Predict the structure of Endoglucanase.
Amino acid sequence: MGRSASSSWVLLVLVVAYVIGCVHCNPNYRDALAKSILFFQGQRSGRLPVNQLVSWRSNSGLTDGHLAQVDLSGGYYDAGDNVKFNFPMAYTTTMLSWGTLEYGKRLGSQLPNARAAIRWATDYLLKCATATPGKLYVGVGDPNADHHCWERPEDMDTVRSIYSVSASNPGSDVAGETAAALAAASLVFRKADPKYSARLLKTAKKVMEFAIQYRGAYSDSLGNAVCPFYCSYSGYKDELLWGAAWLFRATNSVYYYNFIKSLGANDSPDIFSWDNKYAGAYVLLSRRALLNKDSNFEQYRQQSEDFMCRILPNSPSSSTQYTPGGLMYKMSASNLQYVTSITSLITTYSKYMSSAKHTFSCGNMVVTPSTLKYLAKKQVDYILGVNPQKMSYMVGYGANFPRRIHHRGSSLPSQASHPQAIGCDGGFQQGYYTSNPNPNILTGAIVGGPNQNDAYSDERTDYSQSEPATYINAAIVGPLAYFAGIYST
């Protein structure tokens, strides 16, 4: 009797130890997924809807566009500031749409929320594309003036300058990305809202035609209005390929296929981001080779696999650094933006491989769908707390997460608790330089992340580590839905 009780006790201790030690074996992907989408409500510009859940935010930027006698209200603030940069916003929209397309069923109850997040951006992008014939508006708010102030979006009194590209001041990169966003979103709404979908696709075609006809980088046209913030460092050819690839998926038109072929894209990237779209275009186009067995797209399957070989840690052709804790490390400034974007490609390519029962090799190393899935899961899990710091880099997820994020609205008291306006300089003293935790939790926000040694300081002044951004979050929605569908908690 005593021995049996003792054995039971030992077994109970072992089970408890296993559970405690395995708290992070499979994070709660479903919870993280919901929060990753909720984050976008905290970034909204414009008049907020009655069903707004991030209640510490209020209406802002209602007169955006008035300097040009157009309505450019709406859209998203890109990160911790109050500027609307359309280049990263359009990429955010494309990635949200792609994740929703690939993992719609796995999104479950979050599908309507994902669509709402996409639509908040596309409603704004449609205005930018159609408000003035011959112009594509690509941003609102003087970034240099904005970055000299620390104000809530609701209080901002910096000049809301309006930036555009046109035939005489081209921007093939921002136009190509805008076309990609509208085309990808048109697929998301094809069944849910056919009329809206048709409008998105019609506008995408016009914007893409503009991108093709008037070639040039928007950085050259707009100068310090977009540089060094969101310069088009990789040029505009990748956006032409990316935009055409999305329009080809949305239309199946031979026109876009021929244009894609005419570009002759042979770049060999080891990165994917709001700036460099080559790898994303390769994976998107490889779908035809893997799922449709279309030999015309074999080139893109090979280029996708070459990219994966440059990412995989044990590949002989890997050019990707990893931290001691196993995090992909690409650049010191906001590294997690590259991690989430690359992880989205790894997850999606793994999915295509599984459907096609396909494997490939990096030298002597055989890569299966599980190889890619394992790497993607490791990156997602690291972000959610399975790391040397035992810190979740998603705000509001888990018990230990960043409390001093580089974000104006989060770091300053809400209008509800502090109705008086907080001025440009006053915000620095009240919100930026204080060591106090942010008063408002920007639930779901993923910050820039730790350094190459897995260290994170949680300092508001270190924007490279502590600033969240829409494009970091947009890219992880797909992987989170993917793993939520596999590992139910």
